Amino acid sequence: MKRVIVLVVLVLIAVVSSVITPLVISIEVPRYLKDLSRYYIINTIKDTASPEAVAAIVWDYRGLDTVYETLVLYLAIVGGLTIFMYTGELARKTPVGLTLLSRTATKIITVLISTVSAAIAFHGHLTPGGGFPGGSALAVATMLIIPVFSINTLLEKGVTSTKLVAIRGVSLTGLGLVALLPVIRGLEIVTNQRFYPGYLDGFILSGSISLYNLLEFLAVASGFTAVALYLSIPEEYYKGGDNA
Amino acid sequence: MIKYIVVGLLVFLVYMVFVGSLSLYTVLTGLLVSFILSAVSAKYLVVDEKKLLDAGRLLYMVYYFFKYITIIEIKAHMDVVKRIINMDINPGIVKVPVNVKSRYARLLVMGSITNTPGTVVVDERNDYFYVNWISVTTKEPVKARKEISEEFEYYAYKIFE
Questions:
Q1: Which of A72, A176, A187, B91 could form a disulfide with A191 if both were Cys (CB 3.0 to 4.6 A apart)?
Q2: Residues B108 and B141 placed together within one structural domain of the fold
Q3: Which positions ≥6 away from A44 have C-beta within 8 Å?
């Protein structure tokens, strides 16, 4: 009986609130476009050769902001890595990890996440997504491996933070070069269409946008994975001089 | 060799379905991604590649997939819906023996048990699953297996063992 009363009360609340809410809170539907949005909608494809207005704003119209933002994130990660720097050898304990079932499922899921992350990154200039979301998704795949298998499994397969920081460094150097190259021709820094080809043999490349996305993808994935690796080092390793 | 092709093909399929476009750009990047991922991951995913070429296993898998998402799932859903309305529940964790040995077969059994409403595998230890069951009718491991996972194990055996 008590259950029925609770159920009736819940249904009543749902019905009443759905009737009252629209009366109390009026949701304004915009009836016209602001000039700025109208500009982007009409001109993005002409200006940047990218059908994705958000990617165009992030990497072209406001490209310089994004390059600086990437730099800031890079410095933040470098700072984090400096604090968590551990040069000693991690004791190779037998990997423990979760049950065989979890490990089998994680193997499959890791491959699927990597596939989807690559798709997000490669189509960043065409559909919502891009380098940062793609890279974060790929980092999730490696972050899954750490609890399910163990940090040693990653290290034994050669995924070390030294290599990851190197990949990150190379990708960010590439990103910087893509931004700087137009200067050689006397154009402004982070120029897109006047320097990079928007179309190639019918492919939409959106000039530098696809390059930025690819490099950002690698940089974010390797950077976040490096951080995850460092954060998984047990804290007793940091105490004392030698290996704990 | 076969395992690399099969894993690459599956990755390519997932990539194409996720993007949802057949443009040449998507196909080319998809080929690149599937090539890299199959080179890296196939050796961890496939242990016995002879099984990949077994058409019988594939047919069983397709048949089981459709049987699972239609008959088995609907039956389990209806059962749980009835139990929710009548509050006819007797929850508890039972020990269920698993007879299949290979890891994919066990994963399939575990996934099948967990995906059907009313039963969730909470742990795996020494060839036993510990299943949280909405209406415990028996605590006998062998009888519980008959009610919970016998059918799943039959197909898992045919597909993966």
A1: A187
A2: yes
A3: A50, A51, A53, A56
